[in-house]
Amino acid sequence: xxxxxxxxxxxxxxxxxxxxxxxxxxxxxxRGRCSNQPQPELSxxxxxxxxxxxxxxxxxxxxxxVYKATSFTLAIxxxxxxxxxxxxxxxxxxxxxGKAHLDELEVxxxxxxxxxxxxxxxxxxFARVMVGRSLEIARVSYGPIQVTAAVSCDASSKIKxxxxxxxxxxxxxxxxxxxxxxxxxxxxxxLQDLLWKPEDSPGSSWMA
Length: 208
What we know:
The strands form 2 sheets. Strands 2, 4, 6, 7, 8, 9 and 13 form a 7-stranded antiparallel sheet that branches. A 6-stranded mixed sheet has the order 3-5-1-12-11-10. The protein is mainly beta. The chain is built from 2 helices and 13 strands. 7% of the residues lie in helices and 45% in strands.
């Protein structure tokens, strides 16, 4: 089997908050499997990388990754198909202050993969983007919590997810910087620089 038929996704989680600890809850992949497990806990100011892999026999990669905190849960959906000409990749985020993701992971997966939401899902803030040839950005927020994710369209797709606390009114609506708070100066930084740096990298389900 040629390497061009395989698909992988590396997900980097950056906890850019002052006092929120993220705890890894579990993953559910209907296509593909985990090749690098997430760390059990992500303290403020820390980051972690996990990896998933799939091939043509599995149709690529499709699954969710779930984290929990004291006041919310976060679910990340990724879909990286083998043939991007027939099906576009997808990235989804859900933020739930009522911790809706602590139910069955399979239920969360099918909701996010299908983009199925209704008025009964008032406890869930969600964002879903189709992956094109350029970087795509998804963002959700609830109260002071904001989660932003960027994804690249490649056979080896890379997703960077940043969790941060909004400082006040107006912060949520600022769109000029997809990762607010990551910069230490006013100089311009490309999305590619923000998305991934090599030094950042260190059908199955698993729950912590």
